């Protein structure tokens, strides 16, 4: 089929695929995250110490459910502590938008390629497309901003230097508490960047879908049935695909 040949050709292929890839990157980097920090509690009585206390956490960042045991530097006694905060709402919101964004762009690409006529019927396809694209742009902006804020809170709550302040043994001057290492943030920083890139991608595509609706021509149908006209508009046809 000629349309599919064109579709696969050259850089346009990238434009069709990119919204799906960007959505996958966004939810894989955030939803697939797991991190660890490690602290040491060096008691005045060395035998009570634990110099390597590992604390693991992961998506969806319900940190107040992350428990760990630390020595109290009083014989063998240990205390059970929890990290502070629940950042699941912003993380889950972000991942949900990414998943639905991926599903919609996949569906839209299929409809666009295999059901062109249905898409154009009564201009309903472009209309729905326009509304959904506006909604997704907005959602990407909101969820990326919320998740950027959530991430900075997660970073503060899992900073090893802050975590040792929770431990009663560390409030005693003679015991030495310190950070061994903190979590790696590159994956989550990437997820925020991809969130904003998705926003830019979808917002930019509002214009292309707007053109599809034909509203800028005073509501007149933009795609007459004549084949020569269709040929002329093929460029717009492809430029519109990044929408998905
Ligand atoms: C250290 O441990 C010993 C034996 O467990 C105990 O007698 C002593 O009081 C401890 N010292 C401190 C400072 O807790
Ligand atoms: C130190 O803490 C870890 C948990 O992070 C635990 O697995 C380990 O057994 C502890 N070591 C000692 C000597 O208590």
From TrEMBL:
Entry's Gene Ontology cellular component terms: synaptic vesicle membrane
Residues of the MARVEL domain: 7-214
Membrane topology term: Multi-pass membrane protein
Native organism: Sinocyclocheilus anshuiensis
Record family assignment: Belongs to the synaptophysin/synaptobrevin family.
InterPro entries registered for this protein in UniProt: Marvel, Synaptophysin/porin
UniProt protein name: Synaptoporin-like
Keyword hit for Glycoprotein: yes
Keywords: Glycoprotein, Membrane, Transmembrane, Transmembrane helix
The gene coding this protein: LOC107696822
């Amino acid at each position: 089929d000629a349309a599919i040949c064109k579709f696969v050709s050259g850089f346009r292929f990238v434009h069709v695929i990119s919204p799906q890839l960007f959505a996958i990157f966004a939810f894989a980097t955030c939803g697939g995250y797991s991190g660890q920090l490690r602290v040491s509690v060096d008691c005045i009585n060395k035998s009570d110490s634990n110099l390597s206390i590992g604390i693991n956490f992961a998506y969806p960042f319900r940190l107040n459910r992350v428990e760990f045991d630390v020595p109290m530097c009083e014989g063998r006694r240990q205390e059970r502590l929890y990290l502070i905060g629940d950042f699941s709402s912003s993380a889950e919101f972000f991942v949900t938008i990414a998943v639905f964004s991926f599903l919609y762009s996949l569906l839209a690409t299929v409809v666009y390629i295999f059901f062109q006529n249905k898409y154009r019927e009564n201009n309903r396809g472009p209309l729905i497309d326009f509304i959904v694209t506006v909604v997704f742009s907005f959602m990407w902006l909101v969820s990326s901003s919320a998740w950027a804020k959530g991430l900075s809170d997660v970073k503060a709550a899992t900073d090893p230097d802050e975590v040792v302040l929770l431990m009663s043994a560390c409030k005693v001057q003679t015991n030495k508490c310190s950070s061994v290492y903190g979590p790696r943030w590159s994956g989550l920083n990437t997820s925020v960047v991809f969130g904003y890139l998705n926003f830019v991608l979808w917002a930019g595509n509002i214009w292309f879908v707007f053109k599809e609706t034909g509203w800028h021509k005073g509501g007149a149908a933009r795609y007459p049935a004549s084949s020569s006209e269709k040929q002329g508009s093929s460029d717009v046809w492809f430029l519109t695909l990044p929408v998905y």
